Amino acid sequence: xxxxxxxxxxxxxxxxxxxxxxxxxxxxxxxxxxxxxxxxxxxxxxxxxxxxxxxxxxxxxxxxxxxxxxxxxx
Length: 74
Fold this sequence. Notes:
- The protein is an alpha+beta fold.
- Helix content is 43%, strand content 24%.
């Protein structure tokens, strides 16, 4: 999955898998051609964190299911 760079309200830059179009952001193009998505407000930042958490939980579930399937097949 593609990672995007987000700027949180406190100025912290983070790389997350959330689609920037899923929340309210302002795209900022940098001189090097990359884009940072500035989160537009505290409620949007909470949505962003929640969405990333869900992505990570889903990936963990899929991983556990794969391990289970491998054990059953062995």
